[in-house]
Amino acid sequence: MQLAWRDADVADMPTIGTRITTFDGLRQVPGGHGARLEWVRARAKAFRAEFTSTGTPASVTTCDLVTLPYPTRFGLFRASRAVAPFLAITNRMLVIRWQDGDGRRRVLLFEPSDVELGRSTPYFAALARRTPAALSSLLVTEHGTVLGHLARLGIAPEEVDYLMFDHLHTQDLRRWVGTTTPQPDLGGAVVEPLLPNAKVVVQRDELLAMTCLHPIQRPWYQPEAFRAVRTGAFLAVDGALLLGPGVAVLATPGHVHGNQTLALNTSTGVWASSENAIAAECLTPEHSRMPGIARWTRTWQQEVVLNANTIETTAEQYNSLVLEKTLVDRSQADPRFLQFFPSSELTAAWTNPGTKPTFSHHAIHHAA
User: Fold this and answer.
1) Residue 90 belongs to what domain range?
2) Does residue 18 contact residue 249 with C-beta atoms inside 8 Å?
3) Residue 306 sits in a domain of what CATH number?
4) How far is CA 320 from CA 41, 202, 340, in A?
5) What is the pLDDT of residues 47-101, one digit of tens each?
6) Domain tally, the chain
7) What SUPFAM superfamilies does the record tag this protein with (predicted)?
8) Which of 24, 77, 40, 109 has its CA nearest to residue 300?
9) What is the pLDDT of residues 27-47, one digit of tens each?
10) How many Å apart are CA 269 and CA 279, to the nearest integer?
11) In terms of pTM, does the model score above 0.85?
């Protein structure tokens, strides 16, 4: 099923944030993906200096949502020699708060996945049908819900300004932003938004790609879930945008055409968060103790290990991950690893031998 976006469904962002032009012109760089890699690396260094001068948000809080299985061949693309066909990843939400120049307080939820509705993603639905219920209960652990975490943090649902995902794989946002028509699978009535003032920050490229999905994309999207979303729910971004002090969205295409990364300047330095990789060690794979990872990078002289399920544009994704690698600081806990926070982080599980991460962040801690 394809989408036909109405103009009213998508709002532009002329008055929100500040446009970042550092990365403009990437697609016009002559010489192919290799030349673009070096261009991206140089521009990321330049942007880092600009970004750190913008200040820091008031706080960044990490909220665990769910741990679930994911194919090893996707998460550790081509590099892993683990015998386990699946590894475990933990999806987490980041809650970022800051104050605009006019004094208005803002709240951004990064990766606020509706775990229950995400189960209908074609790939995971098919996997669930093949998995006995008793085994599924061992492989999937739900840690908390978006609304439960907000209540714990003392944030009222109407105080949430922005929702953002690195990309819209697996997402169903109807309960968050509401619908314009009755939804038979959600009680049969028009869905009133649980986050009534929240707008979804998304790259225009991804919205356009979702209007006509390619066969390799279809297992990972729920396009029908977007057909009746509330008018004006989306804020379309073209490229990079500074949302607030120390808070930016960067276009990082490759994993999907309209992939994006959250960049944060914090008390420990610069972080980047996306699903371009599932572990911090995938950005410095020479230090990984997981079977095959360090050997892979030595053999093929590849400096990053991708998370690649759809393989939309592998070389672009590689370049985007190098952008993130160049932008961030080293971890204070272990300087061999970088402050890249996977939105779905590799998690040790006894059921998945050979996929225990060498290093994990688990959370970003920041309060101004």
Assistant:
1) 7-367
2) no
3) 3.60.15.10
4) 9, 17, 13
5) 999 999 999 999 999 999 999 999 999 999 999 999 999 999 999 999 999 999 8
6) 1
7) Metallo-hydrolase/oxidoreductase
8) 77
9) 899 999 999 999 999 999 999
10) 19
11) yes
